[in-house]
Structure formats: C-alpha cells, structure tokens
Amino acid sequence: MKTLRSIAYARSGDKGSSANIAVFGRTPADYAWLREHLTAAQVEAWFKPLGPGPVVRYDVPNLEALNFVLPGVLAGGGSCSLRIDAQGKTLGQALLAMPLDLLPEHSHSTD
Amino acid sequence: MSRPLKIANASGFWGDQPDAAARLVARQPDLDYLTLDYLAEVSLSIMAITRAKDPAASYARDFVEVVQSLVKFWQDGGRTKIVTNAGGLDPHACGAAVCAELARAGLTRLKVAVVAGDDVLARVQAGGPDFKNLETGADVATVAGRLVTANAYLGAEGIAAALQAGAHIVITGRVADPSLTVGPCCAHFAWTAADHDRLAGATVAGHLLECGAQACGGFSTDWLELPGSHDIGFPVAEISGDGTCVLTKPAGTGGAVTVQTVKEQLLYEIGDPGNYLSPDVTVSFLTLRVEQDGPDRVRIAGATGRPPPDTYKVSATYRHGYKAHGMLTIFGEQAVTKARRAGEGVLRRLREAGCVYRETLVECLGTGASVGGIIRRVPENDLIETVLRVSVAADTAEPVKRFTREIAPLVTCGPQGVTGYASGRPKVMPVFGYWPCLIPRSAVKPVWQML
C-alpha cells in the first residue's frame, strides 16, 4: 500500500492546544500532486478521532510545502493534555502514513 | 560590508544537552555568539511553583552550569558572547549568580546585562477585554484569581542596547525566541527598526536556530539516513548585513544541513507562513529562497518584513488543578485486552470509592495510541506486549493522590505478566492552563541594566 511517505516528508509541532503539520513534496511533481489532492478536509477527516477543529491549509510554493493548522487537536496541549503526545510530535509521521488511495485520484504523476 | 556574524544555538529547550555550549566553542572558537533558549510556553509557571520553595528556582539554573563549562574557554582568550532567556522569572537573580561564577573564575572583565520588563501579571490580573484568550475568546476574569504568570514576548531592542553598551552575556526573561538572534544582529550591523527586510532575515535565522539540533537533522523525517546521528551538530547561522544567512554546523559533528532539514525547521510550529508575527517585525516566509551552498551549508535569502503589530503577545498561565500518569507493562496473550481491562478497572474502583475526576484516559502504547489509534498495522491482540498508561486530572489534589496509589497494586490483582513497576508511585503534578493574549506596546516598558 502506497502512502504519502513515498512522495512527501513532514514536520509537526504545537502552538498551545493546536498543532501544525508541514508537508513537503519530495520532487516538484510530488508537490504539484499534493497541492491538487491533499486538502484541508482530507487532513481533518484523517485526524477526526483526535477531534480537530476546522483545519486550515496554507500553500507555501517557494518551499514546495503545504502547512496544515489543526486547531484544538491536542486535547488542551502542553500541561493540560493527558495524552502521551501532548505536543503533536507524532502527527507528521501519522499524516505520512495516510494511504494514497484515500485521496480522490491516486494515479501518482511520477508513477 | 562587515563580515557575517556567526551565531550558534547551544540549547533548544530547558533540558537540552548540558555540554552543547562547551563543545560548540571547542569545535568552532570563532563563533561570535551562542544563544540559549530555555523557555517553553509553560516553563515560567513551573518556575513560579518551584520559586515558592526556593528563590533560586526562579530562573534556569542549568545556565549557570553552562557558564561554568565556558570559564576555561574565556580564560584562554575566547571571545564568544552569550544571549539567553535563562533569566526566566528573575533575570536579575540569574545575572547575580552568573556574576558570582565569573568572579570566582577571575573573569570580572566579562560584563553581564539583564533585560526585564516582560512581567505583566499585575496588568493581566486587573483584567479587561484586552486580555481575552486568543484561542478561545474567553474573558480573563474566568481565571484571574488563578493566574500564576503573565509575560510579554519582548523583542530584540533591550538585547541590542545591552550589547552595544559592551555586554558579553545578556540574560533576559521572556523574549520572542528569534529575538535572541535578532538582538546581536541589530547591535553588530546597526540596523534600525525600519530595516524590515533585514530584521525579517535575522528573524528567520533565529527561528531556524531556536530549536538546536532540529535544524541539523534532529527530528527530521529521514533521520535514519543521517550520518552520525549519535552526535547531531548544533546549528550555526552566518548572518550577513543584508539579512541573508547561511545555516551550517561545526565540522566533525553528525547530522546534516540540507535544503530538506532547513525546510522542515522553517515551518516548525508555524501558523500562517505569510504572517509570522514577532515583536521585531512581521515576516513573510512566502518569499524565502532556500538553496544548498556546499556540504552542510544552506543559504536562506529573500525574507520580507513589515512593521510588527502594535501589541505584544503575552503568554499567561493559570492553575488548573492536578494530574498524574501511571504506567505498567503488560506482557502475554491478549495483552492489550488485559491492559485495557486493568486500566478501566482502576478507574472504576476509584470512582466507586468516591473519587471525582474531570478527565481520565486509558492508553495502550504499542497500538498507535499516540495518535488515537487512527493507524493500526497489526490487530491489537497480535501484540505480545503493551505499556498501559492511565491518566487522571482533577480540580483538587486529593483524588489524584489517591490514584497514584492504585497503579502498583495491579501487580498482584491484575493479569499475569504485569511488570515495569520498579519506578515507584507516579507523581502528582500541578496543571497549568495556557492563556495566550495581547497587550498594547504602550503598556509594557522593556528595561535593561548592566550588572
């Protein structure tokens, strides 16, 4: 099963009770594909069990990146959250594990 | 144009490698500055609690040990200066401790300055619509009686002034993390507050530096492929007078500085990349150009800046009850089912004994619990082992204390194969709520002083 990991790398972190996940295309073609297919709605659906608010996507074409902000996804974050990952350290890895065939049209442009 | 300023980071957070500073100057004695960051969002509230028992616990005492570790370097003629937010709640106390250390080493020629004025607790406690929670919109009156700290993120101004006056070590309380880097740049290149693009470039450099080894491959997606991952280098920014920089690391250290490691760190803990807010300048990351400039050298150019907001961000914290986490290892057939039943059983027994919690959580580590189980690679009961983690939070300490006594008994009343209980009872920890808000610049008076 092909996952986002095959075409992207990522970095996640916290800001209060919110987290951000930056996703980078490994090639310009990968980035073009991500930009077209990886929407805020899909990221929100993927992390739904963690209860994020409305996810916002920022496009950063000069860095071939998409930056997703997931409000309230850390159950209080920082000192308040009871979770083993109160700071969103794992979210980048979790997003890279998303199967490509969950996305609407999965014929990858560089296949 | 003067030569680039070489600024390294030697601490990305309170608890980072204690020998990073000494190793950096040993490997690269021509560094102009070391910056050391100790203050996460709720670090100051931890200091506020420990200060009640010990006045010296109002700052990051680890920094005094860092000074001790650099004494020999300075005695031998080393010139690297230091900018740090180790002052925490009491930069003057931290400064006094550092001066005492320098005096002991015969290094009184090194001047120490402190930057203060970030403490706005009295203002926030007085309340008002200005201080509503930036995340929730709630009125500060809902927590006013429980506020522990409120500190404005100051900018580079006080740091730059102290350095221009000849300080070798500048100790601050709460300042914006990138300002630890922007301050030395302003002092060295004589930039003004109107040099928005240059300030933006230095802010980007400071943002890359502030998490230590994370800019050099630490925490990166492809960490397994890094050379020398046992000893990843701390980052060095060579910042030019036009605000562009080259990010690199000392020769002989592990990890890597590549376009990938730099891009990952650029977007770490970022919201809108077109509007990165700092007290020095509002930065757009959308104009940045990042390119490899040699082995372990990446050039970052193109930062654009606009005037900063007319408010400072304030990081306030309030007491929010207590919590504890208990962990045990469960090995054997149906380990996860057993662990879950054991954890739920502890909570049920406590509830039946009258304990009231505002929140509880049972996690079985190994099942993908870190992300709420959204990814499962194997059926849960194919796992031969799991770590049971049970957590509770309550408004008062008593039910949490009771909980901490109920984990170890699972060794005799729980399933066969419970182990890993040797670390003793869990600790009752105070919980601090995070209250981000804004304060008008006119209400804050940054001050600096040479000791």
Q: What do these coordinates show?
A:
- The complex is a heterodimer of chains A (111) and B (451).
- Chain A has 111 residues and is an alpha+beta fold.
- Chain A is globular and about 40 Å long.
- Helix content of chain A is 21%, strand content 24%.
- Chain A contains three helices and four strands, in the order E-E-H-H-E-E-H.
- Mean pLDDT of chain A is 93; it is low at 107-111.
- Chain A has a four-stranded antiparallel beta sheet with strand order 1-2-4-3.
- With 451 residues, chain B is α+β, with helices and mostly antiparallel strands.
- Chain B has helices spanning 20-27, 43-53, 62-75, 91-104, 121-125, 157-164, 179-189, 196-209, 259-266, 335-352, 397-404, 410-413; strands at residues 5-11, 33-36, 81-84, 112-116, 147-152, 169-172, 236-239, 245-248, 276-277, 282-284, 289-292, 298-301, 304-306, 311-331, 359-365, 385-394, 418-419, 429-440, 447-450.
- In chain B, the strands form three sheets. A ten-stranded mixed beta sheet of chain B has the order 11-12-8-7-1-2-3-6-4-19, sandwiched between helices. In chain B, strands 5, 14, 15, 16, 17 and 18 form a six-stranded antiparallel beta sheet that branches.
- The longest helix of chain B has 18 residues, at 335-352.
- The radius of gyration of chain B is 24 Å and the shape is globular.
- At the A-B interface, strand 1, strand 2, strand 4 and helix 3 of A face helix 9, strand 14, strand 15, strand 16 and strand 18 of B.
